[in-house]
């Protein structure tokens, strides 16, 4: 089975050397850092790609059947489109893919797929894109920089697009804080989550988020866990997404628990990110499940990750 073909405008010398990619999950927004902050997490999309006669994906891990589908596959459509825009007919690829990132849960699955497609195009099409060009292409396709910047660079990454140029800064890569993802059973699309937000905010809300965001960056940069309770307060997106993300209002009060450093919606939701000191014992899972009133709630333990590995 082959994805829809693109018409090339020029031939290209194709790279046949295999490519290995490892791309981390990301939790964006981090409370007040709407469309600005992203945190790389040690849950990975891993791809080993080689040229082949036809497109084919062998997938394992979470949502393996969806990841193995060649039709409407974001990695492949991005790969083909990037090369088509460069006037290159994309060579067919065979993937061995292993996925640990929950899909449609606010964990950056689309950002990792977009970046994977761009990196595959850059490698097999010999595009010689710089790191900045790769990130800018991913941001253009994603529509906002927070997830793709954190996925590519790792750690806690602040990003902004000013005068059509992307700026990034990364910190917190070596922090040992434990990250827990509480995953509800129903996913939520980013487009639906964005549609819930108002067009305008009060000055009071805007100032509160600026203050909290500045404090949150300082907390990660200096490793000051005692700042997270105040720093992860948000007035721009979480209050408007509560109904679509019912786990959020149940777990936000846990930020007052002395064992927990901070609680926030992961990305656009519906998953909720809980940060604790390392190590986090099994009692934390029980506290979260009791607050959610769901004894079978899936909780993933992970930690802060480095960015993309390419070899």
Give your account of this protein's structure.
The chain is α+β, with helices and mostly antiparallel strands and 311 residues long. It contains 11 helices and 11 strands. It is 33% helix and 26% strand. A hairpin with a 6-residue loop joins strand 8 and strand 9. Helix 3 crosses helix 4 and helix 3 packs across helix 5. The longest helix is centred in the last third of the chain and has 20 residues. The two termini are 27 Å apart.
Biggest sheet record: 7 strands, mixed
Class derived from helix and strand content: alpha+beta
Poorly predicted runs of 5 or more residues? none
Helicity, as a percent range? 25-40%
The beta-strand count equals: 11
Shape field: globular
Number of helices: 11
Q: State the distance separating the first and last CA atoms.
A: 27 Å
Salient structural properties:
single chain, 311 residues, alpha+beta, seven-stranded mixed sheet, four-stranded antiparallel sheet, 11 helices, 11 strands, globular
What's the arrangement of secondary structure elements?
Layout: E1 19-29, E2 33-51, E3 56-61, H1 64-68, H2 74-85, E4 93-99, H3 109-124, H4 131-142, H5 146-153, E5 156-162, E6 165-171, E7 178-183, H6 190-195, H7 203-222, H8 228-231, H9 238-241, H10 247-251, E8 260-265, E9 272-276, H11 282-292, E10 298-303, E11 309-310
Parallel strand pairs: 3-4
Antiparallel strand pairs: 1-2, 1-11, 2-4, 2-5, 5-6, 7-9, 7-10, 8-9
Helix pairs in contact: 2-3, 3-4, 3-5, 4-5
Please sum up the structure shown.
The protein is of the alpha+beta class and 311 residues long.
């Amino acid at each position: 089975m082959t994805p829809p073909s693109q018409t090339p405008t020029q031939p290209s010398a194709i790279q046949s050397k295999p490519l290995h990619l490892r791309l981390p999950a990301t939790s964006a927004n981090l409370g007040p850092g709407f469309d600005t902050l992203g945190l790389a997490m040690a849950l990975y999309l891993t791809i080993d790609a080689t040229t082949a006669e036809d497109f084919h994906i062998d997938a394992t891990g979470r949502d393996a059947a969806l990841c193995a589908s060649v039709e409407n596959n974001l990695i492949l459509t991005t790969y083909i489109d990037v090369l088509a825009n460069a006037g290159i007919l994309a060579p067919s690829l065979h993937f061995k893919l292993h996925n640990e990132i929950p899909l449609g849960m606010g964990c950056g699955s689309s950002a990792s797929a977009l970046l994977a497609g761009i990196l595959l195009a850059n490698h097999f099409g010999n595009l010689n894109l710089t790191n900045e060009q790769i990130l800018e292409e991913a941001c253009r396709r994603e529509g906002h920089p927070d997830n793709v910047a954190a996925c590519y660079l790792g750690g806690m990454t602040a990003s902004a697009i000013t005068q059509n140029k992307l700026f990034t800064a990364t910190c917190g890569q070596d922090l040992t804080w434990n990250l827990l993802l509480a995953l509800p059973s129903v996913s939520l699309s980013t487009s639906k989550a964005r549609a819930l937000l108002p067009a305008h905010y009060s000055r009071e809300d805007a100032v509160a988020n600026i203050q909290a965001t500045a404090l949150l960056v300082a907390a990660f940069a200096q490793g000051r866990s005692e700042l997270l309770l105040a720093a992860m307060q948000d007035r721009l997106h979480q209050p408007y997404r509560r109904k679509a993300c019912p786990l959020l209002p149940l777990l936000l009060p846990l930020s007052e628990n002395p064992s927990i450093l901070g609680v926030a919606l992961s990305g656009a939701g519906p998953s909720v990110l809980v940060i604790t000191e390392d190590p986090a014992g099994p009692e934390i899972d029980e506290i979260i499940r009791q607050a959610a009133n769901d004894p079978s709630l899936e909780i993933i333990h992970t930690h802060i990750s480095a960015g993309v590995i390419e070899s």
